[in-house]
Amino acid sequence: MTLIASDPEADLAEFDVVGTSLRKPDGLPKTTGSARYADDLKLPRMGFCRLLRSTRPHATILSIDTSAARELPGVFGVITGRDLPVKYGVLPVGQDEQALCTEKVRYVGDAVAAVAAVDEETADRALDLIDVAYAELPTYLSIDEGLNKPGEPIHEGKFGNAHRAAALEFGDVDAALEEADHVFEDTYFFQGNTHLPLEQHACVAEWSPSGKLTMWTSTQSPHYVHKELAKALALREDQVRVIAPPVGGGFGGKLELFQHEAAAAKLAMLTGRPIKAALNREEVFYCHRGRHPVLMWVKTGWTNDGCITGMDFKSFVDGGAYMSYGAASLYYTGALQAVCEHIPAYRWQGLRVLTNKPPCGPKRGHGTPQPRYALECHFDAVAERLGMPVLELRRKNFLQPNSKTVNHLRVTSNGLRECVDIVSRESSFDARHGKLPFGKGVGFAVGAYLCGAGLPLYWNDMPHSSVDIRLDRSGVVTVSCGQIDIGQGSNAMLTTVVAEALGARPEQINLISADTDLTPIDLGSYSSRVTFMAGNAAISAANQLRNLLVNAAADELDVPVDELVLRRGTLWRRDGQGPRLSFAELVKLAETRNGALTATGSYKPPKLGGPFKGSGVGPSPAYSYSAAVVEVDVDPRTGWVTVDKVWLAHDIGRALNPVLVEGQVEGSIYMALGEVLMEEQEFRGERGPRVLGVHRIPSMLEYKSPTTFETPEMHTFLVETIDPEGPFGAKEVGQGPLLPVIPAVANAVYDAVGVRIDETPITPDKVLRALEARAEGKGGRFGPTKIPTYPFPRLIKVPPPWAEKAAEG
Amino acid sequence: MPALNRLPLMLNVNGEDLELFVPVHKTLLEVLREDLDLTGTKHGCELGECGACAVLIDGQPILSCLALPIEYQAPAQILTVEGLADGATLHPLQETFAELGAAQCGYCTPGMLVTAKSLLDQVANPTRAQIVEALSGNLCRCTGYVKIFEAVELAAERLHRASPAAV
Q1: Residue A246 Cα, gap to closest chain B Cα (Å)
Q2: Contacts of residue B146 in chain A, CB cutoff 8 Å?
Q3: Number of domains in chain B
Q4: What range defines the domain where residue B44 resides?
Q5: Hey, what domains does chain A have and what are their CATH numbers?
Q6: Yes or no, beta carbons of A31 and B49 under 8 Å apart
Q7: How many interface pairs between A and B have CB atoms less than 8 angstroms apart?
Q8: Alpha carbon of A725 to those of A15, A525, A730: distances in Å?
Q9: Last residue of a domain, one of B83, B108, B130
Q10: Residues B127, B99 share a domain
Q11: For B17-39, how does the pLDDT look when each residue is reduced to its tens digit (9 = 90+)?
Q12: Across the interface, do B98 and A199 touch by the CB < 8 Å criterion?
């Protein structure tokens, strides 16, 4: 890894902890086996919950007979949807889920009943005794079927299965395309895939007779689970406490209430016993909430010298059976098209269609990897059609720092150009692109991502993150925050920023996280928000306490405050005179003077976003930028694609902990390679009849994910642009680096063997079919050729921000 | 209550002989986690696909989710992540995985650690290719494996430095 300061004057030595690769506070607990995850918890008298899941993709429930199950010895309780009638959903506009279905089931795996028993085997035997009578309904397994097949829609609604649509235009796109010297269009399909965290979802629920429910659960957002669980159980929110133990991987798959959580909670309330529900791997595949399959069409206009004049984009999103995060996911397929290039005019129309498959939702990059794949492959093809080197074309169009996009997104720090320069130089891209022997290729792409969503899921003006810090006279610094470390390193991030801001040693810091009774709100580990938001909240709290400490010392020593230095847990006079005070001594002085030492900091993003409906998705206080070059080897006899090397440069703002930042980059590269080469969430019936809606490969053996053997050489470069609003200038790294890798692989495959695979995953069969088609003179491409005709709603027309300025001027 | 066909067993786990009376069909994974409260060993599939449940039997990694305890009674030596440290002294792998961020979410980590220990016990200075091969049955979704390879290499180096004669 190489650290490259974008500003040569940047003085990294000004920090004690920031910029050092501090060991994660949860590192040793995870290597000694002492970290206790949700499924490691065990309470006295605990019972075990299993769910009866639908075997039908779409059916009316005629009856459920649980009488035999209730009589089975060892069974503590059996519930159906009648015990949990309240509908819920993570989005205010998506209150469409039930813990246990009452009227109908909407996908294979939808839960209809739950049992608590002395052990899982007994609970499973009880499930076998439950008799459900179904009446089949038409099954919709694709966007096409959802739109065109007649019959009862999956949910009641004005537009049937076409449940969410949006249409936005910024500037005059028709005129921009009309005036262009060249217009190009392409169609792409991005297949759905799933998070596959190593830890299967698990929870333990305990009900106190005084009327309080405690739930330990593997979740990325204790706050949203808290709200949804209270609603599903018809309890007041103050009656519910959600605690997230360490989470064994999330990637977006544990961001809302799941059926097993509500069922375990209800069974705990009814049986008076703690109840554990732990999913098996097959159930995790059916819970899903992963990457939406998206069919995309893009049309762009260009001047002769390679500048974009306008872009027209349509996305058709296969949502699965429920809303989940779907309204936001849909908008994200249109929100970040203009953050890398300056696009003078932009139109986006998007549609999310319900299908009888497990609900899709947020997965790493949430709605952004699909259009980024389409755009980056499209730009690669455009460069070739224009006869320009791809980097020359790309460099003509990049967005400047401190600018606004056509759709009113505020971009501040932007290290994209530096990222591109680094990866192209390090990989010798210009010397090799288009010049390697047949079968070898290099591909290039870029990407950008949010540092936290500008708005919470339910609209309000409260902080997005809060941090309490309490100083003890022993010198212990207790930091409380609702944030949850899902492996991304947010515990280390908080330790680093608090130690730095407070002038304490990292070992003094004690973290309390992710407990809705004990810790102040943090919305959760999603949208790459924790570093930016919890980090800034922590700095705010730490600064208040630091002032109290230093002022107390100034009084005691009778010197002006600015002559004192507080670093690494020690205070001294700048001139070296007088005593050095330990942190504990400082706390005692300040506590004597001020009383108990606690402070709270909170963070709310500035007001961002344009003056139009739908502007809530896309704004962020900052954007990270990435560029990638990928080198592949494609075997033209088998179609097998091997990724040999990846160069990735990421604009991190500032690397608070370089080793952990690099780990996020490598993990993103890995996950991108899985998505582009092998992973797909595929269901029977999508390609021919058989048992409709059954997952084809719901196991870790058959759902192929990269192993150590598929790990390429990874070269990571961090660009530090020192973001003006980030904590110590830091930006996100958990999701952005995934974005360019997927299209860079596709572009490298084209460079290697001359076929465009415009559909993920790029599997050997697709490469071979494209090669065969080319050999037969039918063009070397594999991918979709058409999009549905759909009457999108009337366009919301918004002038670009520069048009407003011109009008005002 | 279901009729349970229980069996008395003696297992040697992390150097301790433990007497148990457990249903015969319980897997070693279940016995370790549920009966012995050794929850450090994780599970990601219960089908032998992910490697998270790996433990060492007489120094060889096996998937505890596919193993029955009756096959591995004492004197067979079962080693789990809880037994990696020598008293209060951590195994170098435990240190290097924590230092290099090779444990992100940490769920694959116990299986990775014991599998890597088995490799290092047999090959003092493994090549990158040998590490890749040894860990190829252990899935990790967080790290992209690179930090794991580096942590194994660093641990090998430290072990070598501590007792060069053993090589």
Answers
A1: 8
A2: 666, 711, 714
A3: 2
A4: 6-83
A5: 47-137+200-247+254-287 (3.90.1170.50), 462-603 (3.30.365.10)
A6: no
A7: 183
A8: 18, 19, 8
A9: B83
A10: yes
A11: 999 999 999 999 999 999 999 99
A12: no
CB A519 within 8 A of CB A481: yes
Q: Is the pLDDT of residue A275 over 70?
A: yes
Q: Is A248:A89 a contact under the CB 8 Å cutoff?
A: no
| B55/B101 same-domain check | no
A506-540 pLDDT, tens digit per residue, is 999 999 999 999 999 999 999 999 999 999 999 99
> Is B141 domain-assigned?
yes
In this structure, are B102 and B59 located in the same domain? Answer: no
Residue B167, in any domain of the structure: no
Please check whether residue B1 lies inside any domain of the structure.
no
Which pTM does this prediction carry? 0.97
Give yes or no for B94 touching A (CB within 8 A). yes
Helices A369-386 and A738-753 sit at what angle, rounded to 10 degrees? 40
Residue in the block written with tokens 């961001």: A255
A101 DSSP 8-state letter: -
Contact: A705, B141; criterion CB under 8 Å: yes
pLDDT by residue (tens digit) across A364-411? 999 999 999 999 999 999 999 999 999 999 999 999 999 999 999 999
Residues of A in contact with B109 (CB under 8 A): 30-31
pLDDT for A7 equals: 44
Number of Cβ within a 10 Å radius of residue A394: 26
Beta strands in A226-274 (DSSP E): 240-243
**What interface predicted TM-score (ipTM) does this complex get?**
0.97
Residues B73, B102 within the same domain: no
Burial of A459 (0-12, 13-18, 19+ CB in 10 A): exposed
Residues B10 and B79 in one domain: yes
Boundary residue ending a domain (B83, B105, B138): B83
Tell me, yes or no, whether B98 and B45 share the same domain: no
Average pLDDT score over chain A: 96
Chain B residues close to A249, C-beta within 8 Å = 104-105, 107, 141-142
Looking at the structure, tell me whether residues B78 and B10 fall in a common domain: yes
Is residue B99 domain-shared with residue B79, that is, in the same domain?
no
B78–chain A Cβ distance below 8 A for any pair: no
Q: What is the CATH classification number for the domain harbouring B156? A: 1.10.150.120
Closest CA to A600 of A482, A494, A466, A727: A466
Chain B environment of A200 (Cβ under 8 Å): 43-44
CATH number at residue B24: 3.10.20.30
Mean pLDDT score, A96-115: 98
From chain B, the residues in CB contact with A23 under 8 A are: 98-99
- The amino acid occupying position A137 is L
Q: Which of A127, A132, A124 is nearest to A103 (CA)?
A: A132
pLDDT score of A98 more than 50 = yes
Q: Give every CB contact of residue A803 below 8 A, 6+ residues apart in sequence.
A: A171
CA of A306, closest CA in chain B: separation in Å?
37
Q: Are strands A164-170 and A796-798 parallel, antiparallel or unpaired?
A: parallel
Contact A667/B90, CB-based, under 8 Å?
Answer: no
In a domain, B63, yes or no: yes
B99: nearest CA in chain A? A23
